[in-house]
TrEMBL record:
PANTHER family recorded: HIPPOCAMPUS ABUNDANT TRANSCRIPT-LIKE PROTEIN 1, MAJOR FACILITATOR SUPERFAMILY DOMAIN-CONTAINING PROTEIN 10
Membrane topology: Multi-pass membrane protein
Transmembrane spans: 26-43, 49-71, 92-109
Name of the protein this chain belongs to: Uncharacterized protein
Length: 155
C-alpha cells in the first residue's frame, strides 16, 4: 500500500508541487512530512495509526527527488554527475549508519525486542506491549533523538 502511494506521490504530486511551490519549498514540505511520519510512528498506539503514518511516509518520499532536482538546478552542467553522485553517496551512508546509530541508542536504553511476546492473532499489530521496560523506554529514545537532532541544528 505504501509503495503504491509513494509511486503516486513521486509522479503526480511531486510534479504539481514542483510546479506550484518550487524546488526549495517542495523539499521543505517533504521534510515536514518526514517529521510528522516519524513522530506519528513514535507516539502512535493503535494499529490504524501505523497505517496512517505509512500514508504520510509515502508523501515524504518526495524529499529525495526534490533535493536531487534542487541540486541539479544549482550545479553547472559539467558537474551534474559529481553532485548527483555525492547526494546518492550521502544517502547511502545515512541508510547504513542510521540503523547502526539507532541500534546503539536502543542498546543504551536497554530496549530488547527479542523478549516481546509473539503476536497472537494472525494479522493483528501490537505496537506497544504492556510489559517490560520497552513500554517506557521507546518514547524516551524518540525524545532523546529529537533533542540530539535539534541540538545539532543549533550548533
Amino acid at each position: 500500500v505504501v509503495g503504491i502511494l509513494s509511486i503516486v506521490a513521486q509522479t503526480l504530486f511531486l510534479t504539481l508541487l514542483m510546479r506550484y511551490l518550487g524546488n526549495k519549498n517542495t523539499v521543505l514540505l517533504g521534510l515536514g512530512f518526514q517529521i510528522l511520519q516519524l513522530a506519528w510512528y513514535g507516539f502512535g498506539s493503535e494499529p490504524w495509526m501505523m497505517w496512517a503514518a505509512g500514508a504520510v511516509a509515502a508523501m515524504s518520499s518526495i524529499t529525495f527527488p526534490a533535493v536531487s532536482a534542487l541540486v541539479s538546478q544549482s550545479a553547472d552542467s559539467d558537474k551534474q554527475g559529481v553532485v548527483q553522485g555525492m547526494i546518492t553517496g550521502i544517502r547511502g551512508l545515512c541508510n547504513g549508519l542510521g540503523p547502526a546509530l539507532y541500534g546503539f541508542i536502543f542498546f543504551l536504553f536497554n530496549v530488547e525486542f527479542n523478549t516481546m511476546d509473539p503476536i497472537q492473532e494472525e494479522y493483528s499489530i501490537d505496537p506497544l506491549p504492556l510489559h517490560g521496560p520497552t513500554e517506557v523506554k521507546a518514547p524516551r529514545t524518540l525524545v532523546l533523538t529529537l533533542h540530539l537532532w535539534f541540538k545539532r541544528l543549533i550548533i
